[in-house]
Design brief:
Strand content: 25-35%
Number of strands: 26
Oligomer: single chain
Number of domains: 2
CATH architecture of the largest domain: Alpha-Beta Complex
Largest sheet: 8 strands, mixed
CATH topology of the largest domain: Fumarylacetoacetate hydrolase, domain 2
């Protein structure tokens, strides 16, 4: 067990019950305040640990990461010092804040400089995203879409169980939680029509996803195996891959998603390290037909992460429309990264790889309004009596996720985005 993951650890910082951010989590993000410029922080309960202050006060001097890496407005510089260096940093933070260590605990003059209230902070996009790839790795989601648009007896395309299908998305429009978006506009083909029209999307949708962020990979021409993949993954976040279904439907043949996806993707601000999630490894589904050797893997590589999606507006409080779980994925992260690099494609520090929509095996666990409303034929009633087939102007979509067992809860916080009218 990684020492920082010990479920018996307690912090001298007060942690609310069922907090997403116990001392065993210690996720990384970028924050600022009215007085502090953007910098690296770590969430602990309702506090943020200012790593720049921690370093300047001499508490991180024996690590391989210099203090100036924590004065950056993105995590990339810190991440560039290797996974082992990040692991040592996380362990040092755990040691400083555990209740059995008096080193910082009794030095109360330093507390106000190091510990920032989360409610006083502004959260920023945590990484400089170089490239973004979106996979399509939930079998139930792929099956549901195949049933709606093709044949229920032939819902999955011939390649789906042989490769982790994916496409290259748009990195520039990835935004952090709390950033509003405007309803996209573009070409659509109305029902029973043969010619396109132009205007605001009428079928705006969310996609419940998780994403992982990479360290620098191997040089161009080399690949990362499923056995090596964990060494190249920094951590994970919640990911809402917004989709304009009507724009997407008209444009995606023959080359795939474009404007129906590229207008926005929202991520949660805290990156939970892969190390923190180790206690929640689970077995994946039996993969039949048997995958090719480079996609085969050993040990448990799926993760049990409970997920929830809610919709709110000025007319009603949050209303949960989906409860799902990341463990339902058919293809895991190791397979996704192995497939992504098998042709020699190089990955860079800060690349984002999203899971694709995560749908569970039954109604109530589907990861998009397209499925929840079954292409608009089953409207969802909201608390104020209105109905939703897709997302309306003024709606906010909130996604949350956490892993838990009888001793430990590791959470991701939330990703929340409000939809504004078309400009």
């Amino acid at each position: 067990m990684i020492a920082a993951n010990n479920p018996n650890l307690n912090s001298w910082v007060q942690i609310p019950e069922n907090s997403d951010f116990p001392i065993q989590n210690l996720p990384f993000g970028i924050f600022s305040t009215k007085k502090l410029s953007p910098r690296v922080g770590v969430a602990l309960g309702e506090k943020i640990i200012d790593l720049n202050a921690l370093g300047e006060l001499g508490y991180l001097k024996d690590l391989d990461i210099p203090t100036d890496a924590f004065r950056n407005s993105v995590l990339n510089n810190m991440m560039g010092h290797s996974k082992l260096a990040i692991r040592d940093l996380r362990q040092r933070i755990s040691d400083l804040f555990v209740d059995t260590n008096s080193e910082l605990q009794t030095n109360t003059d330093h507390h106000s400089s190091i510990l920032i209230e989360q409610h006083d902070a502004f959260m920023h996009l945590p990484i400089k995203v170089g490239d973004y790839t979106d996979f399509y790795s939930s079998e139930q989601h792929a099956y549901n879409v195949g049933c709606m648009f093709r044949d229920p007896n032939n819902a999955l395309l011939p390649n789906w169980k042989h490769i982790p299908v994916g496409y290259h998305g748009r990195a520039s429009s990835i935004i952090v939680s709390g950033t509003d978006i405007h309803r996209p506009k573009g070409q659509q083909i109305p029902p029973n029509e043969t010619q396109p029209v132009f205007g605001p999307s009428r079928l705006l949708d969310f996609e419940l996803e998780m994403a992982f962020i990479t360290f620098d990979g191997k040089p161009l021409g080399q690949n990362i195996s499923t056995a090596e993949a964990d060494d190249y993954i920094f951590g994970m976040c919640l990911f809402n891959d917004w989709s304009a279904r009507d724009i997407q439907k008209w444009e995606y043949v023959p080359l795939g998603p474009f404007l129906g996806k590229s207008f926005a993707s929202s991520i949660s601000p805290w990156i939970v390290t892969l190390d923190a999630l180790e206690p929640f490894r689970v077995s994946g589904p039996d993969q039949a037909p048997k995958v090719l050797p480079y996609l085969q893997y050993k040990e448990e590589k799926h993760l049990d992460i409970k997920l929830e999606v809610a919709i709110s507006s000025s007319d009603f409080d949050e209303h949960v429309v989906s409860r799902s779980n990341y463990k339902y994925m058919y293809w895991n992260m190791n397979q996704q990264l192995a497939h992504h690099t098998i042709n020699g494609c190089n990955i860079n520090c800060g690349d984002i790889m999203a899971s694709g929509t995560i749908s569970g095996p039954e109604e109530g666990s589907y990861g998009s309004m397209l499925e929840i409303s079954w292409k608009g034929t089953r409207p969802v009633r909201m608390p104020d009596g209105t109905e939703r087939k897709f997302i309306a102007d003024g709606d906010s979509v909130i996604m949350r996720g956490y892993s838990s067992n009888d001793k430990l809860r590791i959470g991701f916080g939330e990703v929340k985005t409000k939809v504004l009218p078309t400009i």
